[in-house]
Automatic annotation (TrEMBL):
This is Uncharacterized protein. It comes from Bacteroides oleiciplenus. The chain crosses the membrane at residues 40-58, 64-83, 104-122, 128-150. Keywords: Membrane, Transmembrane, Transmembrane helix. It comes from the Bacteria.
Length: 156
């Protein structure tokens, strides 16, 4: 009964998340540093969409439009999977056993299925962009997160 009440409380507050491991439910408080990361990600997806629209207008080939759409969609899925795993790992202090199987499943699917599609559809230059973009963004998010934590400790 108490676990059900804790789960209901977790659903009421957006900053709480319930993680279930082997039948045991643990409620964690998600750190508010990830709000900045989520804002950057939404801004970044808007910029990528603007790039996509611009690219369609400058080059009217249907094949190119399809390729860039696949690239855009794949980038969003890969970044979403990596950020959600990072957010959950940070919330449980990087204890991998507390991450739900669904999150790992999404992460693995995006990295095993989408990357071969990139490799088969794109030229070497486009594939390198698709490969380097998440590889550059995720360490950048980690650095921003560390700076936010240090700044909060210094100024509070």
């Amino acid at each position: 009964m108490a676990k059900i009440q804790e789960l209901q409380k977790a659903q009421l507050f957006q900053h709480l998340e319930a993680i279930q491991l082997n039948g045991v439910t643990k409620i964690i408080n998600i750190n508010h540093d990830m709000k900045l990361i989520k804002r950057i990600t939404s801004w970044l997806s808007s910029v990528l969409m603007l790039f996509l629209v611009t690219y369609w207008y400058t080059d009217y080939h249907l094949d190119t439009a399809i390729d860039i759409s696949v690239l855009f969609t794949g980038e969003i899925w890969i970044i979403y999977g990596a950020i959600s795993i990072y957010e959950q790992l940070k919330a449980v202090k990087f204890q991998f056993k507390y991450i739900p199987r669904k999150s790992w499943f999404i992460f693995i699917i995006t990295h095993i299925i989408i990357w071969p599609i990139f490799y088969l559809l794109f030229t070497e230059k486009e594939f390198m962009i698709a490969y380097l973009f998440p590889g550059i963004m995720l360490p950048l998010f980690l650095i921003i997160d560390i700076i936010a934590i240090i700044g909060r400790k210094i100024f509070n």
